[in-house]
């Protein structure tokens, strides 16, 4: 398929010896090694499937791409799953786009960009799930908990004959 690592790099993960009797431990170890090579090259959610054609063993490797991107409200109060911040605003700060390869470093940069807005409590997390329509895509769900947004400041001060009342109202996310 459409893979981003060369054959020489992937062969470093193969522990099965040519013309030897295959055992399950070596097969699982090789599959795991190939997945680890991908992770070490910043590519996540790779599917490695061994298959046999006669006596020939091959590995089918699928590098899923980004499907849809969702923003989910993290809440402990059971209220609506809707965020005050609009999706189109959040998408400006997400560095990964539909159709891109799933790279952990880009997802981490996206989380950093979203947290720098100051609208969300940390930590912002993400989860990938297989797209229900196309199994070659992974939908990404960013879980966000909005700050309460409202800050009320009251200060009293003054002298005996002079009383000052100051009040302030601030909302981070109208």
Question: Can you put this structure into words, describing what you see?
Answer:
- Strands 3-5-4 form a 3-stranded mixed beta sheet.
- It is 23% helix and 36% strand.
- The mean pLDDT is 82.
- The protein is elongated and about 100 Å long.
- It has 4 helices and 7 strands.
- It starts with 6 loop residues before the first helix and ends with a strand.
- By secondary structure, the protein is α+β, with helices and mostly antiparallel strands.
Instruction: Return residue spans where pLDDT drops below 50 for at least 5 consecutive residues.
Output: none
Helical/strand content category: alpha+beta
The biggest beta sheet reads:
3 strands, mixed
**First-to-last CA distance:** 46 Å
| Elements, N to C (H/E) | HHEEEHHEEEE
Q: What is the mean pLDDT?
A: 82
Rg over CA atoms, rounded to whole Å, is 25 Å
What's the total count of β strands?
A: 7
- What proportion of the residues form beta strands (DSSP E)? 35-45%
The DSSP helix count reads 4
Strand order of the largest sheet: 3-5-4
Rough outline: elongated
How much helix, percentage-wise, in residues?
10-25%
Essential attributes:
174 residues, alpha+beta, three-stranded mixed sheet, two-stranded antiparallel sheet, 7 strands
Secondary-structure blueprint of this entry?
Blueprint: H1 7-11, H2 24-40, E1 47-53, E2 56-62, E3 65-73, H3 87-91, H4 104-116, E4 120-130, E5 137-146, E6 150-158, E7 163-171
Parallel strand pairs: 3-5
Antiparallel strand pairs: 1-2, 4-5, 6-7
